[in-house]
Specification:
The protein is an alpha+beta fold and about 70 residues long. It has helices spanning about 5-20, 50-70; strands at about 20-35, 35-50.
């Protein structure tokens, strides 16, 4: 992979992480399973990250793109 492509990907992921600071997903767990009786419980899982991580990735992507541009000249 070229370094310019890696820089662009880092910048895009950084912008996405700044815009969306996390997401949720739901899993279903069986609580009771007795013959015809089924009771399930939905459990919410939150994945959160600090927007500063996105800013760091964005800055790193920009640095990689700029250094690649300077070294190719």
């Amino acid at each position: 992979m070229k370094t310019k492509t890696i820089g662009i990907l880092l910048a895009i992921v950084g912008v996405i992480m700044i815009a969306y600071t996390g997401f949720n997903y739901i899993t279903t767990e069986k609580v009771v399973d007795i013959g015809p009786i089924h009771i399930d419980k939905e459990k919410n899982h939150e994945i959160q990250w600090n927007p500063i991580v996105g800013a760091i990735l964005l800055a790193a992507g920009c640095v990689v793109i700029i250094t690649n541009r300077n070294s190719s000249n």
